[in-house]
Each structure stands twice: as C-alpha cells, then as structure tokens.
Amino acid sequence: MAAVDKAAQGEVAAMLPATTPLSMRNVAYNGPDGAAITVTELAGKTLRINLWATWCAPCREEMPALNELQTTMGGADFQVVAVNVDTGGDEKPKAFLEEIGVDELAYYRDPSLALFNRLKRQGLALRLPVTILIDKEGCLLALMNGPAEWANDDARLLIEAAM
What is the structure's pLDDT at 20? Predict the structure, then answer.
C-alpha cells in the first residue's frame, strides 16, 4: 500500500491507499457472457475495477483512456475491469462503447447497482466513476472517486507500483 500511495502522483494523485486490509474477493458483477462472476475468478492479476455509466459525463470521457490502459498494460498480470452500472438492457452501453471505439475492454455489467451500493455502504463509493485497485490476492489497495487520465506515465507508474 505504501508503494501505491507514493506512486499516486500527477493525474492519479486522487488515488487514496487503503488504510486497512479489505478483502474484495466476493465483489460480484456480470461477466462478458452475462453470468455472475466475482473478483476471485480473476485471481492472480492486479485489477483496476471501474464503475461507469453512459449518463455519467466524466465516465464517458475517461473510457478511451481505460481502453488504452488495457491495451498497453493488460495481460497475465493486470486487467482493467470496467463495470457498466446502467439500469436496463445492454443495448445502450454496448452501442456507446462501439461509438467511441472502446475495443480492448471486456464487457462487464451490474444493472442492479448492487456493486455500487455495496461500495457506497462501505464508504468507498461516493459518485461515478469509481476506481478500485485490487491486488493479486483480491484485497483492496487503493480507491478513487471521480475521473482521471489513465493513458499516461502517471497511471502506468501507479499500476506498476500496484503490481
């Protein structure tokens, strides 16, 4: 956590390190196939989970940078998990991603808002977008409420510190 705190500079300076260990292993959302999954199923990777919605202007602005972050850093050790929280069907969020050229992010969803509400009850989510960094064991490393520029050296250094 200290390495992440030190690396939270510049464009990602609002990333706050977790002050106490918190397991996120049972954080659930729907995977690309529509079936429910948890963080445990992505064990072994550092995760940057992002909650976003099509109606959230800052979310819409940062999605291309998240796509680029996944393109440049995603792989066996790291993954961007962008979870859409629009209520209703998949049509609008999928059309939005296609419209802006987001093609490297797998499609994750939580139309029930259960994940956002859980994070809100834990004092981790205040508004969208919400970013949580999770280590390879499924524990919270750091979090941020609000947008950031994720396609730059500040973000790369933060992710490297998290890994």
Answer: 85
The single-letter code of the amino acid at 34 is G
Instruction: Identify whether the C-beta of residue 108 lies closer than 8 Å to the C-beta of residue 83.
Output: yes
Distance CA 21, CA 77 (A): 21
Peptide bond into 129 cis (omega under 30): yes
Q: Is the pLDDT of residue 3 over 90?
A: no
Helices (H), 2-143: 2-7, 57-73, 91-99, 114-121
pLDDT score, position 94? 95
| pLDDT tens for each residue of 28-39 | 999 999 999 999
* 36-38, strands of its sheet edge to edge: 16-17, 140-145, 130-134, 46-52, 78-84, 108-109, 28-30, 36-38
- Give CA–CA dist 87/79, Å, rounded: 24
Give the β-pairing of 28-30 and 36-38.
Answer: antiparallel
